[in-house]
Amino acid sequence: MDEMARLVLLIVVAGLGLTAAGGAAAWSMDESRRIRRGLRKVLGEAPHALLVANGRGRGVGFNFTKNLLAVAWDAGAWCLIYGVDELIGAELVVDGQVAGRVHRGEPRRAVDSLTGGERLVRLRLVFSDPANPDFDLDLWIAADQRKRMATEAMEEGNRWLARTEALFRRPLPRRLSPVVAAATTPAPPKPDPPPFDRDAEDDDSLTF
Predict the structure, then answer these.
(1) How far apart (Å, rounded) are the C-alpha atoms in residues 49 and 67?
(2) In this predicted structure, which of 6-20, 29-43, 59-73 has the lowest mean pLDDT?
(3) 185 three-class SS
(4) How large is the angle between the packed helices 31-43 and 2-29, nearest 10 degrees?
(5) 42: closest CA among 71, 67, 84, 75?
(6) For residue 141, how many other CB atoms are within 10 A of its CB?
(7) 110, 157, 177, 198 - which has most CB atoms within 10 Å?
């Protein structure tokens, strides 16, 4: 009987260990956590503001101390860093139509209604980078199937429009112009003139 009890106990302990290991692996591989880890790595610290497009493997995070933002895709495996001054706008796209937008130097176009959203709710970030001019975060798609989530996604997108507008009101970080940068760099020392060779001057065979 004692042998049977020990066997049952060992089976229970092994089952609990496997469950805990599986839970830990699932926790570490969770999409939002992987995106957060990727953004924290490139930003140097945990993002001060973070938005994740669940199910799409994409996210964006801000570091307001360093005036940086980074976008991530492939669940955080790939990231791209921008200066905050390179962000020039954000748009909330609902079913292919721009429902709200904010661009640097322009008044915010507020979202008139948070209803609707039959196919897509997308937040688009616009950058002054010809190579990578925008980044899309699909906050809700029709395949998500829950109608209520479309409204929640529109509310979240609208909050990010307001957050972007507040960011635009902050003074841009100062950058040295190339002229100033050159002026603050000490000029290299001038080489000493070559020594005067009197014998060479008296040599009649010297030609020019």
Answers:
(1) 12
(2) 6-20
(3) coil
(4) 50
(5) 71
(6) 18
(7) 157
Average pLDDT of the residues in 145-172: 86
**How far apart (Å, rounded) are the C-alpha atoms in residues 99 and 51?**
19
Tell me which amino acid residue 178 is.
Answer: P
Token pair belonging to 21: 């290991």
Long-range CB contacts (within 8 A, 24+) of 43-50: 43/68, 43/70, 43/81, 49/163
Alpha carbons 140 and 114: distance in angstroms, whole number: 13
Measured over the CA atoms of residue 153, residue 154, residue 160 and residue 164, the dihedral's sign is positive
| Global confidence as pTM | 0.68
* Residues recorded for the chain: 208
> CA separation (Å) from 90 to 57, 125, 177, 184, 201?
20, 5, 27, 37, 74
pLDDT tens for 40-93 read: 999 999 999 999 998 999 999 999 999 999 999 999 999 999 999 999 999 999
Q: In whole angstroms, give the CA distance from residue 46 to residue 9.
A: 42
